[in-house]
Amino acid sequence: MKERGSFFVVPGIVWVLLFTIFPLVYSFRVSLSRVAYGRITGFAGLANYARMFQDYRFWGVLGFTLIFVIFSVAITVSLGLLLALVFNRKMRGLRFFRALMTTPLFTAPVALGYLGVMMFYEENGPINILLQTLGFSKVPWLSDIFWARTAVIMVDVWQWTPFAFIILLAGLQSLPDEVYEAAVLDTSSGWDIFRYITFPMISPVLGTVIMLRLVDAFKVFDIPFALTNGGPGTATRTLTFYVYTQGLRNFDLGYASAMAYFLMFMSLAVGIFFFRRYRSLYE
Amino acid sequence: MKKKKKLGIVDVLVWIVIVITFIWVVTPFYWAVITSFKKPIDVFRLSVVPWLQFKPTLDNWYMEFTQRGPEIMKGITNSIVISVSAALLAIALGSLAGYGLARFRFRKWKNQDMALWFLSQRFLPPAATVIPFFLIIKSLGLLDTRLALVLVNTTFTMPFAVLIMRDMFKELPVELEEAALVDGCSRWTAFLRVALPLAAPALVSTAIICFAFTWNEFLFALVLTYRQAIPMTIVIAGTEHTQGVQFWYVSTRLLLAILPPAILALMVQKYIVRGLTMGAVKG
Questions:
Q1: Contacts of B183 (CB under 8 A, 6+ apart)
Q2: Are B219 and A240 in contact (CB under 8 A)?
Q3: A39 membership: H or E segment, kind and range
Q4: What sign for the dihedral angle of Cα B268, B270, B271, B276?
């Protein structure tokens, strides 16, 4: 078409420029500065970045963030795939079930965190009572490092397993039936059908799900904030959480901006790595 | 030849999975609901069935809307105003840009590159922009205003709207708009009068998804508001600190924060897979 369409796209592009790129440039400048009481007082070079590598808290926070990302993504995606395979059949009520499964995705994560406080409550919370009825001992969910981390991951798994499930189910249901019929005629076993037919065909969707889950998991903040407030100690602080406390509670803005940049590059690296393989899906 | 249908082991397993998943998804919500109808004395007992195991009471809900009414109403009003404005802005910008990308071919800056520009927002961790945003909003004197949160959330949700609307417009037949153009309509009228009404269902769903994401947003609300403009996510975060383990209060507020987006999300099932993957997977 000959007309000019820039009129349509310019507002959106300018908006992104104004509200994302400009703040990012600004924050890069802050990350290279010495900041005191919220004001830039001088040039610091890469000192803020160097400081990260000497800060034991930063390493601890990075460690938990990675633990969280690995476990949360692995569990949500494998559970989601399992459920999607189970439900990939013609059955009544599937639409209702799928709709029900979307509700966790649209529940505010911060609300889920507080709901988790109720569920995981140590003295007579429902989960501990259930465990005791089953003959286990009480679990110190929110006061023990290991269990607090487990609880944070569990809440995240609860919220995001449906995400993997719904998308993978959509992917499975878009596969053509003919291939399966041919495979059944060849009397392949169920496992063979999955391994040589379903899995290769679903892998672009699976890759996309893993990519989106990874990117989201790196951002996690609301759930640990609400559920454990980063504790016990700093055991469940994530990178975003640390950026928040350093930057906006302690007003150590330069250092926090440097860490934010580090987080962004990690997240972008993951995004680019996967995106190069699955780009065609977006076009 | 059709196989005779029998209730095999597989079907039984599927039903077991259905029941477990159902309980897994519903329990936390159910727990919040019954807790909100419990007297304090019943909260820390494993009582699940109302009337049989505990006597339900409306006291908590009554208190919520009378004594603590103004605070809650402020939170809900703010959440509604912010989410509706951000969703409207996002779909306005989003349908414009989406239409531009779907109907024009740009040379200088290719369509794919622009789509990528919007998509890249999905990979940006909020922590990366929270500090510069705070500084900019502060210097503009917009701290603790709804406007600040509207701007932020429009920025986060608009890329969704752009990419989903682009797909939707691509799927509409071009002929209708071409006919309108031949009849002497301007491009703008063809967009407003022909394309937009045809895309209305998708537009509404996109708006609902944007509304839900804005409603659930927490980090920026925490940083940018403190008294007048606080949305529901911040109201519930405040409750926990002041009310400790008074779960009977906490649960009423949690439900008020959780329900609006969760119920709305039930209405957008058709577009949910696209929405969650930004159009990569069609469901």
A1: none
A2: yes
A3: strand A39-43
A4: positive
To the nearest 5 percent, what fractions of chain A are helix, strand and coil? 75, 5, 20
Comparison of pLDDT for A245 and A174, the residue scoring more: A245
* Cα B154 from Cα B50, distance rounded (Å): 42
Mean pLDDT computed over B60-81: 89
Which pair of structure tokens corresponds to residue B107? 């040379």
Nearest-10 crossing angle of helices A47-54, A253-278: 80
Q: Hey, is the C-beta of A202 within 8 angstroms of any chain B C-beta?
A: no
pLDDT value for B242: 61
In chain A, pLDDT over 90 holds for what percent of residues?
A: 54
Q: Which long-range contacts (CB under 8 A, 24 or more apart) does B11-15 make?
A: B13/A86, B14/A86, B14/A87, B14/A89, B14/A91
Taking an 8 Å cut-off on Cβ atoms, the answer to whether B106 and A5 are in contact is yes
A170: part of which helix (H) or strand (E)?
helix A145-173
Per-residue pLDDT, A236: 94
Q: Which helix (H) or strand (E) holds B277?
A: helix B272-277
Using a CB-CB cut-off of 8 Å, the residues of chain A touching B155 are 15-16, 19-20
Choose the closest CB to B158 out of A12, A112, A240: A12
- State the ipTM, two decimals: 0.91
A160 touches chain B (CB under 8 A): no
Amino acid at position B6, single letter:
K
Structure tokens at B197: 């009404």
Helix (H, G, I), strand (E, B) or coil at A276: helix
DSSP B268: G
Which chain B residue shows the shortest CA-CA distance from A126?
B46
A263 with B232: Cβ contact below 8 A: no
Q: Which residues of B153-162 are buried (b: 16+ CB within 10 A; e: fewer)?
A: bbbbbbbbbb
In the stretch 18-37 of chain B, residues with CB closer than 8 A to chain A read: 18, 21-22, 24-29, 31-32, 35
Nearest residue, CB atoms, B280 vs list A3, A95, A208: A208
What is the mean predicted confidence (pLDDT) over A58-74?
96
What is the pLDDT averaged over residues B63-68? 83
